[in-house]
Amino acid sequence: MFRGVATLVDGEARIVPDESWRWVTAANGSITTFVTPRGPANVWVEFESRDLIVLRGTGDIKVNFFVLGVRDGFIDHQVIRPNTSIIPTYRNEPYSEDKSERYKQILIQNGTLNPDLTPNEATARRLGWELKDREDEARPRPVRDEVPRPSFTPPRTARAATAIARTSARVPRPAASRDIRGGPLAVRPHVLPFPSPPATTMPGGTLAGCPTTTISSGVTPPSTPSARSIAPTPAALR
Length: 238
Fold this sequence. Notes:
A hairpin with a 4-residue loop joins strand 4 and strand 5 (53-57). The protein has helices spanning 19-24, 101-109, 121-127, 134-138, 158-168, 234-237, and strands spanning 2-7, 12-15, 31-37, 43-48, 53-57, 62-69. The protein contains six helices and six strands, in the order ββαββββααααα. The longest helix has 11 residues, at 158-168. The strands form two sheets. A three-stranded antiparallel beta sheet has the order 1-6-3, with no helix packed on it.
């Protein structure tokens, strides 16, 4: 808006609005001009726009004018609309304490707050506001039971399965035998039998590893007695 004083010359006055006003004012019938003559004359608005306003009258007199314009982009602006910014959060807790006294009185008058500046719960229920309790936020939240996750075993390849089978295989145990006294020999698990003693060459070219081998000297060694022939009797073992 802007205002001023104009003088009618030959029954006409032309008013050129300021450039800054033209930038922010919308067109298409958004301008309203008020005129008041300073003497006995009839004055009216002949033409008005953002660039020029023309006044006419029945005499050459001074007139006061007052021009209003709608801000560009706000032609459909609604002055009264639903409240989306002033919404209390906590019940029984003062709201808008940092506002001016007049601002607080307006919120009390329109039913947003009670006289003690706490939220009006009746208004909150009517408008669908959800008021919270400050104590509820201080309480620890219950911990949900954790759902056990299913175990996952990656599939084994053929090569890995073979390696595992070889590693887990056990050495077979030797069969139990008896010593020359008839008692069982102590067998250690996972111990392979002792290998045979290596054969040695005796003078004459014969092997002396086997008791049945005949030596070239013509002497036959005595045969090894069997375990049964020299086994002690039970009475001797006592």
